[in-house]
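Reopening this one. Same input as before:
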Amino acid sequence: MHPDALTLSAQRIAPLILLTYVACISLEIVIAKLLNRKLYDFDDTLHNLIMFFANRMMGGLGGAFMFTVLSTAAQFIPWKLTGLIGNAATFLIVDSLFYVQHRLFHTDSFLAPFHEIHHTSEHYNLTTTLRASVFLPFINPLFYAPAVILGCDPLAIIVAFSLIQVYQFFLHTQLVPTLGPLEGLVNTPSAHRVHHGSEQAHYESNLGGVFLIWDRLLDTYTSESVGLVFGIKGVKQENNFFVAQVKPFVVYVRRLMKQIGSMTT
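Same output, byte for byte:
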């Protein structure tokens, strides 16, 4: 697909995706009310929505940057994955790289602040999906460049990555129970609820995008148990947009400087 054609398709599909998100969030709010379940908090939801719109404004720039980096790298790769099989292989490769990226985000490294904000909410609903760092799109090419080396088309990589992101939206709900035989094979709301648990063992499990075969293979799969508490232990939820975006980086740099200082004394 030509980049211009992809852009045009994205412009047509984006409003439909947004309407779907709005409809699903509205439905979840209504069902939660009917079931008398406290799933939403006004300040938390408003904060999530502000982050979503801020990320949408940055999204076009981030997507263009990702395509530029990947397409530049693709010029030096003589082999290509094409056709239906190539697209299917690309999706699997991108999903496996999503796992790698996600797992690195959950290590104590300079990458952690790019993802921490997604986990700081003490609530868990469909709007939780919308919590993301505005800086994240600019490091994505770092993780998906290996797909180019394997012969994946840059546009196919971006499409696969976008589909995974949309799929992730539907995982952030407490209203869908366990899905029986699907658990542990594909990512489900039950599996992802575990991932948003505040315990470190939960926080570092179920890291896949669409498939959980990577978690199974690398022993990071955990099934859901009762009494999950959401958020990150010891990390306060910030409802100021700018503080929430910048604070994880400030805290990490301060901790790093303190570690360096203790090593030199």
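So the earlier flakiness isn't reproducible anymore. For the record, DSSP finds ten helices and no strands in the chain.
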